[in-house]
Each structure stands twice: as C-alpha cells, then as structure tokens.
Design brief:
The protein has about 525 residues and is α+β, with helices and mostly antiparallel strands. It has 13 helices and 24 strands. It folds into two domains: about 325 residues, 3-Layer(bba) Sandwich (FAD/NAD(P)-binding domain); about 160 residues, Cholesterol Oxidase, domain 2. It starts with 6 loop residues before the first strand and ends with a helix. It comes from Streptomyces pluripotens.
C-alpha cells in the first residue's frame, strides 16, 4: 500500500466499463498502486443489478445519474439519458449486447487520425477480454424470436448469423452475443469480470476502491495533472494524488464535464462561466454522437413465451447501400411492447406485444455537451442535435426502417403472432407523416460517445492523441467512449472494453519506462 494516505501511482476516475479493465490490469503489477474513484456503490450482492433481465428496473432508479437533453426541435426532447451510478458503470446497467466493432469501424478511426487503432492492430484486444461472451443460450431463445428471425430472413433476404462475432458481416439476422452467464442469468459486466475476483479473494492490496465518492475537479501543477479533488458520501472533501498518471474514465458525459469544471476546454465558454482557464482545448464536449432509434409496436394475439435472456435477444442488420462496408440500418427485436414514447403521444400500451426498433448505425448528426454553471452539482447540458444532419439521412433511415419492419410483419411465421400494428399505426403511410411520428417517438440506446475524441494535434476538435494523452497536458489520459472519433455501427460496449485493454497496455508501458 502507499506510504501516504490518498497518494497512489495511478488514480482512475470512474469504475465503469473501461475503468474496471484498467484497474485490474495495472494492479497485476504488485509494485503499482491504483485508486479507483467511483460515484456509485458496489454491485456485489446487488441482485437487482447482477440479474441481467432486470435491466429495465435500473433506468431512472437510484443507480442512474438521469441526464436529460436540451430541447430537440427535430426529435424527442423527453428522453432520459441514463448513465449508471454503480461499480461496473453502464455494463452494470445495460443489456450487455456484445459486438466486436467491425473492421471498417476501426479503420474509420485510423483514417480520422487515430494512428495505431486500425482493425488489424485492435483485433488482439478482443481475445484478451475476460467477460463471458456467448450467444443467447438455447433455453433463452423463445419461440416468437425464432419466428421473427425466420420471417426477417424471408422478407429481407439477409442471411442468418449464428455468432455475430465469428466473422465480419455486412448484414444478417440472428440471436445476439451477450456478456452473461446463461445458467443463472447473471451479468458478466466489467466489474464482475475484472474486479469481483479480487474483491472477493482480497488478493490485490495494491487496489483501492473509493466507492460513493465523486470527483469534481482535477488538480494540476502548471500543465501536469497531479490528482483530483473528490467528495465522499458524507460530504468530506479530499485530494487524491497520482504519482504517475490520472486516468479519466467517467464516460462520454462525465469525462468532458470533469475536464470543463477543471478549466480544460473551450476558452470562451469557460470564461463566460467564470471558470479559470487552465488549458484552452476547443474539442472538449464537442463531437457528441449517439445511436438514435425509433420504434414500431405490434399487439400480439396471445401472451409471449416467458423464456428470454433480457427481452431483446435478437437483431437484424441491413445494408441499403451496397457500396459501403458497414450495415446502415439496424433493428433490435424487443419481446415487449416498447411504448414509453408512443404513450406520451396518445397511444395505448397493449397487454401483449412486441417491438422492432429501427436504429441508425452511423448517424450523421453531431451534438455537444457543455456546462451551464461553474457549480459542479449542476448537471451539464446535453445537446445531441438529433436529425439536424443537412441531407436528412438520419430521418430517412427511420422511415426506411419502418417499411422493412412492416414487410417482416407480413411474413410468416412471425405474422401469425400479430394482431395489429399499434404504433405508428397501419394508416400512417405517408413518408412525411411517418418521419414526424418516428422522430417524436424516437429514443436512445444509451450510446453517447465522441466528446473527447482521439485525433492529431492539428485537428481542432481532437482532445486526446493516439495514446489517449490529453493534447498539451501531461500525466493525464482519457479512456472511455468519449475518445471514440466515430461510433461503431454496432453496440459499443465491447469497443469500450477493448479501448480499456489497449489503454492498460499503454499505461503499463509508460510505467515500465518510469521504473527503468
């Protein structure tokens, strides 16, 4: 353990998806001390967290930071942007859908200036993951999901995929890979896979978890980060010092938020709020991306089978533009009537129902996160600028998605389950009408990213370099979904874990250099 209280070799801010990986990997070296600062409690013995199928009950609960967005004139202004307040971060909160980013996703990063992050170099990090990533187990493959897959194949002509991570794909339909333990429906989250073994065995005295502790300001000595100021659950304020490096892994919302509160960000914005400017860095909080999706809901003629892994066990990918390497339309298949937003528009939730969610894998809209106050307790403003892309690509993707979904709904054996279309409703066929309804009822799949993106120093919006070091500062890196230059076309959790693995390697390399 460290000789002086609150002094460690590395301070990791955020015990979430990437932070759990980094803490576990760095402390493999018994001579290295690591403190993890996590705003939420432990997930150990929390059945409400660890049971995958109970994920919906976590949204909007006491383990949710509950961010909202500013008004979205082209989209839905009523979305709750859930961010997890618990060890394991959003991997303790989400559905654990596990896609290795596609080769073209990584190559897009490298082309944007993230040198060394191409598909060939990144492949090795997937093999290192400790999570139990498996296809939805046979016992969890319910009959309506099987029939939906058969109908989707027939209606769209895409192949069935039995293992989305087995090889790259352009399109396909099938049961998902999940990071879970099918025998008991327990999560294989970042915390479960990377931290629980040490917490339960007590075999890492060099790892300190500071739970229910909130980081609100980075400590800097000139241009070098030396630690972070935190507030504990009882209100005590402390300075946690890093001998070597501070690693900011607070997520795509709270990482830029912490930088901005610490005076790192666009000079003009900071000055307007009275925050002393430590380092003028225009890209902090910019380049905000998401995977927006809308919904089409059907009432079923009978109750659904009760077996399921997490009630959204299958997915469909379609490539409308054959000249592209990536799918450009995705659907999650929910074995529940997902009517949260339609109900606000006056639609009723059916007793039994299912949903398809047309999703935009490569949204062209770009938003930003910014502060409205210098007070750390005031939540940041999130402006996703949904559906503001100039050519209307995002809105058209949703309309195209509903047309595909309706074809699947007419196709057996899935058609035999359906009583009627609830939302948008069979009478809504005009493109303009459809687009308006779909945008009003659109949702998020909780994939904010890009707000501290990787890029070269001459990229005005780049926040970190290819080794995840903040441009112009020393002793500090950012490691989470905020560093994504662009979102992968697939659910990004595995990508975040892989970023964590690569970052741990980069940090350990630096560590060895310091010891030499």
């Amino acid at each position: 353990m460290s000789e002086t209280p609150h002094v460690y070799d590395y301070v990791v801010i955020g015990g979430g998806t990437a932070g759990s990986v980094i803490a576990s990997r760095l402390t493999e070296n018994a001579d290295v001390t690591v403190a993890v600062i996590e705003g939420g409690p432990s997930d150990i013995d929390r059945d409400d967290v660890l049971t995958l199928r109970r994920w919906k009950g976590l949204l909007g609960g006491d383990l949710d930071y509950e961010y909202t967005s500013v008004e979205q004139p082209q989209g839905n202004s009523h979305i709750l942007h859930s961010r997890a307040k618990v060890l394991g971060g959003c991997s303790s909160h989400n559905t654990l859908i596990s896609f290795k980013p596609l080769p073209a996703d990584w190559d897009e990063w490298e082309a944007a200036g993230a040198t060394g992050w191409g598909a060939v170099q990144m492949e090795a990090y997937y093999a290192r993951l400790r999570n139990n990533i498996v296809r939805v187990a046979d016992k969890d493959q319910n009959a309506i999901a099987k029939d939906w897959i058969e109908a989707a194949k027939a209606a769209t002509g895409v192949p069935e995929v039995t293992g989305f991570n087995a090889k790259p794909f352009h399109e396909g339909v099938g049961f998902l890979d999940l990071a879970y333990h099918p025998e008991n429906n327990k999560r294989s989250s970042a915390s479960v896979a990377y931290l629980h073994p040490h917490m339960e065995a007590g075999d890492r005295p060099n790892l300190t978890l500071l739970l229910e502790t909130w980081a609100y300001k980075l400590e800097l000595d000139g241009k070098r980060a030396t630690g972070v100021r935190v507030r504990t659950k009882d209100g005590t304020e402390q300075l946690i010092t890093a001998r070597r490096e501070v690693v900011v892994s607070a997520g795509a919302v709270d990482s830029p938020r912490l930088l901005l509160l610490s005076g790192i960000g666009p000079k003009k914005d900071l000055e307007e709020l009275g925050i002393p400017v430590v380092h003028d860095l225009p890209g902090v909080g910019e380049n905000l991306q998401d995977h927006p999706e809308s919904v089409i809901v059907w009432e079923t003629s009978r109750p659904l089978p009760e077996n399921s892994a997490m009630d959204s066990d299958a997915a469909l990918f379609v490539r409308r533009d054959a000249t592209q390497d990536l799918p450009d339309l995705m659907f999650h298949f929910y074995q529940v009537p997902f009517t949260d937003n339609p109900e606000r528009l006056g639609y009723e939730r059916p007793e039994h129902g299912v949903s398809m969610t047309p999703n935009i894998p490569k949204s062209r809209a770009r938003g930003r996160i910014y502060l409205t106050s210098a007070d750390p307790d005031v939540k940041p403003a999130l402006d996703f600028r949904y559906f503001t892309d100039e050519d209307g690509y995002d809105a058209q993707t949703l309309v195209d998605g509903v047309r595909v979904a309706r074809q699947i709904a007419k196709t057996e054996p899935f058609a035999g389950w359906l009583e009627r279309e609830v939302f948008p409703g069979p009478d809504v066929t005009d493109d303009e009408q459809l687009s308006e309804l779909l945008r009003k009822a659109h949702h998020t799949v909780y994939h904010p990213a890009g707000t501290c993106k990787i890029g070269p120093a001459d990229d005005e919006l780049a926040v970190v370099d290819a080794e995840l070091r903040i441009h112009g500062l020393e002793g500090i890196r950012v490691v989470d979904a905020s560093v994504f230059p662009t979102l992968p076309a697939v659910n990004p959790m595995i990508g975040v874990l892989m970023v964590g693995e690569k970052a741990a390697e980069l940090l350990a390399g630096t560590s060895e250099g310091n010891q030499a």
